């Protein structure tokens, strides 16, 4: 029987995920009446800065975070609990195998995933229909589609780059499609120069879109949520985003008839398709006081039933990480699940700001944003990124 | 009773109370201030010689952080942008002083309800910069902002002030000028109250009018108000953090950063945690401010000695 | 050089009338002093002449010009304020030259005039100083210098010496008097210090509640006041007043052994009359014993005795000789009829 | 008074001045009024792009109700009070004592200690950020209101001391001497003679510090996290994250956050302005 | 009741010595006035007696007690400050009782003492008021009341009247004098107003630059000053000084028709001597023509003429009769030998 206090910090501050998580915690609490659970939900953006503080002081027992490089500093600083023991349990070892790599550093596991989600292009089917367009498969189709949309007085894509990472998504896709997953990972690891011709090719492709006016104006002033209305109101036809965008779009009144999804198009036919599928995770801080309960909570979160529930269309609307749980029959989830499991031979990336070290991610995404506003500054931007690369990876 | 037995009866404390008392009164305040302000300043100096991510152990790197800053300067990088913006802030923010003076002159009348007007004009100063930042973010909003609405009446716009690296700093400064102008206005209003009416009359007899009266006779008398306005404006400009944090987070692509924000970003934000580097930036900021602190203390010292 | 004429000058602030129709003629080159108790309108009247206050009704002329509604700077007047109103941020020379500079006078000429004025006022050593670095008397001189430099036809002074200490006041008083002799311009001078009024004025204007009580040369006012108000106001220590009975055409008071004949002005049916007598005009009769000496104050050359008359009236007597009264002593007093003045007990008007 | 008093101007000028005043005020407060307008609009007005028109219906009650009953706003407000009030009390109490010591006694290091406070008050507080955060962490006060309060008290003591010391300096020193001649101990002089005379300064300073602390954002971000200890300024950003693009609610939230210092200002206007011009430095 | 004795009292501020060894004996119950020009150390000396300033060297005794290093409160002195130093937040009664209250005197006794003091000073109607609601004179009385309540052996006053206007000053002067008679305590009073000094003092101490110039009763100082400084300081207008030649045992000056015999103190080989004569002791000889009248000031009963002697010396003459000099007139003057005082031209010491 578990007793004591269990403090959980969440970054799921948007209304839908927040409710989902709170409901899940409610179910956990029911099972463990002896446990006093305190949940703190922190604004998602603020959470990213505050995690440092609460991992060292006033530490919760469980905290959400992200996989891969994003958790490395805390692992290295010894702030995350080694939960390899959990991963050794057959229940988890068998069912979570696919994400084990993303949570492994130095051969140990430092947390458990609770959801992941595909990225891809969400678009207004009704507008495509109106313009007689179909889902593009190749870069040329993409361009011609886009041109038609622009001609109809709309932008092809909405995007809000105020918090930078959305531009990182675009870069992920363009670069992975142009140069392939391995190159992309090398770039994130600082092994390739930013002034490399191949990188320039990625930007050249991007520039093509920018120059034709594919993106909405003033995206640098919006957060990703603030960019949603453009799509809802039909001023933009599509959004390259994670699956979490579906919920607010639906909430804003778009029906499933109006909304659809396609995989980001092929650019360089010689490289294999690769996808972004960021994994969100739960960790036990090393300074947690109730690690026993925390472990139990992690087991609970990754259990097949919970995974089914929290990731279904009414809740997170994302993909469960437990192989035993079922993917909701929500059309986007089905499509995404299929895409990730069958049509991503190149590999699955976490996301630019999780794959690249934080400092590099920051500088580069700032560069992407600048590039999207001022594509002509490319050389200057790349030079700057190259300098940053040399400084950052040097240390 | 003789002097001797009087002193014997008194305790040591009682006899020396005038010498001890100030230290007792000072102790708590000085202690607090030392621990939280003075010592941290030196700690920051020290920290700026280290590389530390706030988690592990700090590594001594000597002047490396400053070297990096130097290279950022040479490369026209973030540090350069921040410093440049800080200078723009310093200069532009000073506009609050003439603006405040102008409004103060405008309101320096006795008509019915003027007190209420004065206090309403002062309003922006009491509001948190956070709220001011939000208000102006919406004011500038490229789609529905009042500014563009307004510009469209003249067939201008739309402009995206906060999204354009040419305008963004000015846009934020403008938002900051709003409360700051209100502040300067109050200082000048009280200053104007203290203007010696006989000097104005002397000026009238001497044939000074309007602008010349203002320049030759009123403004010199407002010197104390101007001095204070100057000090608080400079300090406000150098400390500017809230507005940038709320309105742009330093964006777009870092073009609205100032040192204060940059150091926060480097030290405590999502992708940051280079404490030593942040401390180095803070030290630079401190050195700039030190000029003004020294100036202020100097003028204060002169005043003290003058008495 | 020109005189100043006021005709029916009235000043109202909103509803309240402060100056009630003043008619006054100040001659060219005259030194005219306005005196009166606080709030009687001295400053207001002066400021009306300067143009700093709008004149509600009536007319003000300087020389031949009607200046009633003219700009202050155009009137050819200069004013010296009680607080000096020096511009604190300008040096002495700049202060003095400021008016000329505002009127576009060339620099060389300004310098010349400033040099002249500072010579008159012995300000040369201080020309480069700021007012803060000057003593009170020097500041006052600068304020006067500023007035001189502009070469006005009329000088206006509003209690210029009241912020100085006693010694300096005497010194500056003499200096202003000399200045008047030297440049001979018309000067109007407000004060409530009667010593200043007496010593400096060619003509004193005694004001009360916005009205003129009496106009005249200082000694005329001293010797021959029109009413009790003026009699009290001029002369220090103030005149003594005794409430007397009129009996058989003579004025009697218990403190006085002798009687004083009534003057022409006393109405035949008057039963009571107020007798005014200055402390310096009371004779002490050491052999008498009508009054008790309450207190004496010896000031060296002169001493004042505070007497109590049998009927409780209080009197001050000035004594100069070496034999002086002592507290507690009983003495008699005498009044020479030609020194005594009679006033109407009700209206305070002089009866003569 | 400058410029020329309006009563002395022609009637036409007077009238146009009177007319100009409200117009100028509207322009001046325009952005704020816009937010007030937003805060009473229904959500529909924003989806229908009716940003600047009249509200299609009055939803003030609903919006503010939402803010008060359906968000963390009340908690943030409470936190703000729990942070601000102790800070005001602490800083004023400390600075009364330091101000007294520096204003009354002559000793060698007096001016230097005073200058230390003044200089500290002007320090760009970013330089304190990292050490103070570490100190707070070490004290175990990170993310507590106490941690924030302690720092605020310490930092404000600089300004308050400047203010109080100058105020006490302006008191007639004879009062203290008179008391000393009467045989009153230093502590009692402070308590019975000086403190009562400092009431206006204390009032002015309290109001001033109240608004300073209430409006603090930086330290709230650096030293606290989450609704259990963050004040309203920091809360408003997470509130806005929660209601992203719900302008009516964001506006209502902002208005609520701005209200206490504004109310303070209106109630205590005299003291507030006295404080600004006496101490005259933030 | 006790006197105050100073022995070699010295005060230094850092390096600068301000009081240079004062020896002074003030009798029990005496009213002693310190006068002297500004900055001469009056206040400092008073504050040393009060214990507000540390005495650097020397000894101060009050009665039999050596109080040199005693706490102010223990000395049995009370002080009345120039600015009154009333506690503005306390009522009149509280102000007066505060010292007793802080020293643990029971409430009933405080009330009794306050009632006594307020009766002496006629403050009863104001006991419940705050100082702000009082006039200057009333405030001054409260300040005195506060001193009385503590029943001190010595009262110290530092220019208590200088903030009052002329009229009130006269009134309060009389009141303090009366108070002294009534309670008979030793009082030490600082002023730079010589009228106050002359009228109130039993003993005047004239200070200059931290040294005593002369001590004595007022009229003694007036009649018989020890040196030129005291002679100038006491008496108004100040004494005239003429630089004279000593010829054949007589003192001569071009303005004087007659000569004055040298006094005993004049050294036999003296060639020059300064003759001092008060304005009120100069006789005017209308038939003479040694001097030119430069300026006259008529104050009513008395008038002052500023004379220019043939050798350029300046003189002021007081005239009282109706026949007075006019500016520009030429007159002669006469001095009675017993009124003339001779001083050493160099040291200013009286020669007698
Ligand atoms: N602006 C004003 N509004 C209304 N009444 C005024 C104004 N200025 C002066 N007064 C009134 O006018 C009267 C005369 O004032 P004024 O200043 O001329 O007196 P004064 O004789 O100069 O007195 P003092 O000797 O105190 O200077 C006073 O009763 C005063 O209250
Ligand atoms: N704290 C001090 N430090 C140095 N010098 C001082 C100090 N206080 C007073 N003095 C000097 O001591 C001298 C005597 O000062 P004091 O105040 O006793 O003069 P005073 O005779 O009372 O003058 P006043 O008539 O102007 O009051 C002055 O020259 C003054 O400058
Ligand atoms: Mg006046
Ligand atoms: Mg003194």
TrEMBL record, chain B:
Cell compartments where the protein resides: Cell membrane
One Pfam family recorded for the sequence: BPD_transp_1
CDD domains: TM_PBP2
Keywords: Cell membrane, Membrane, Transmembrane, Transmembrane helix, Transport
Sequence ranges assigned to domain ABC transmembrane type-1 in this UniProt record: 82-296
The organism's place on the tree of life at top rank: Bacteria
Main location: membrane
GO biological process: transmembrane transport
TM annotation in the entry: 20-42, 87-108, 120-140, 167-192, 213-238, 277-298
Name of the protein this chain belongs to: Carbohydrate ABC transporter membrane protein 1, CUT1 family
Automatic annotation (TrEMBL), chains C, E:
Record keywords: ATP-binding, Cell inner membrane, Cell membrane, Membrane, Nucleotide-binding, Transport
Matches recorded under InterPro entries: AAA+_ATPase, ABC_transporter-like_ATP-bd, ABC_transporter-like_CS, ABC_transpr_MalK-like, ABC_transpr_MalK/UgpC-like, Mo/tungstate-bd_C_term_dom, NA-bd_OB-fold, OB_MalK-like
Domain ABC transporter: 4-234
Source superkingdom: Bacteria
Gene3D superfamilies: 2.40.50.100, Nucleic acid-binding proteins, P-loop containing nucleotide triphosphate hydrolases
GO cellular component labels: ATP-binding cassette (ABC) transporter complex, substrate-binding subunit-containing; maltose transport complex
SMART domains in alphabetical order: AAA
Record GO terms (molecular function): ABC-type maltose transporter activity; ATP binding; ATP hydrolysis activity
Record-stated family: Belongs to the ABC transporter superfamily.
Name of this protein: Carbohydrate ABC transporter ATP-binding protein, CUT1 family
Source organism: Ruegeria intermedia
UniProtKB/TrEMBL annotation, chain D:
Domain of life: Bacteria
Boundaries of every ABC transmembrane type-1 domain copy: 77-268
The keyword Transmembrane helix is annotated on this UniProt entry: yes
Protein localization: Cell membrane
GO cellular-component term (any): plasma membrane
Keyword set, alphabetical order: Cell membrane, Membrane, Transmembrane, Transmembrane helix, Transport
Transmembrane segments: 20-40, 81-104, 111-129, 149-168, 189-214, 245-267
Name this protein carries in UniProt: Carbohydrate ABC transporter membrane protein 2, CUT1 family
